[in-house]
Design brief:
With 142 residues, the protein is α/β, with parallel strands linked by helices. It has two helices and eight strands. It folds into two domains: 62 residues, 2,3-Dihydroxybiphenyl 1,2-Dioxygenase, domain 1, CATH 3.10.180; 73 residues, Roll (2,3-Dihydroxybiphenyl 1,2-Dioxygenase, domain 1), CATH 3.10.180.10. 14% of the residues lie in helices and 34% in strands.
Length: 142
């Protein structure tokens, strides 16, 4: 039996805030579905060179009282990046908390505006440990 990855879905409370966050990670909108009858919007976002690997942002027009929650039951989304230090600096400059800094030059965790855990992994070999990341403590959890 053949299996093909389709997408990962996360519910979001503020659609525009989440679109901006995923754009900071380098994802672009690939598809949008507005469902008047169901009163929801689906936004599919993916890395430019991987349009078949999207995250689906599901926004309920009438709100979702369960958001934001801890979201740890969801697990996390994972993306490899060309330079983990540059990506973390870019996110931090935009006000994103680096929950688990890339002390090892290989892995970091951040949270989306709706508390979804995002794992960032250095593409290829780990970078040499460097400041300010090397001595930065964890913030919160991931």
């Amino acid at each position: 039996m053949k299996v093909k990855y389709l997408h990962t879905m996360v519910r979001v409370k503020d659609l525009e805030e989440n679109i901006k966050f995923y754009e900071l990670l380098g994802l672009k909108e690939t598809r949008r579905i507005e469902n008047e009858g169901g009163r929801f919007t689906l936004i599919f976002m993916a890395p430019e060179d991987q349009p078949d690997c999207p995250v689906e942002l599901t926004y309920n027009w009438d709100g979702d009282e369960g958001l934001p929650s801890d979201s740890r039951h969801f697990g996390h989304l994972a993306y490899s990046v060309g330079n983990i230090y540059e990506m973390c600096a870019k996110l931090q400059e935009a006000g994103v908390v680096i929950n688990r800094p890339p002390r090892d030059g290989h892995m970091a965790f951040v949270r989306s505006p709706d508390n979804v855990s995002i794992e960032l992994l250095q593409e290829g070999d780990a970078l040499e440990p460097a400041e300010p990341w090397k001595s930065m403590e964890n913030t919160g959890h991931w």
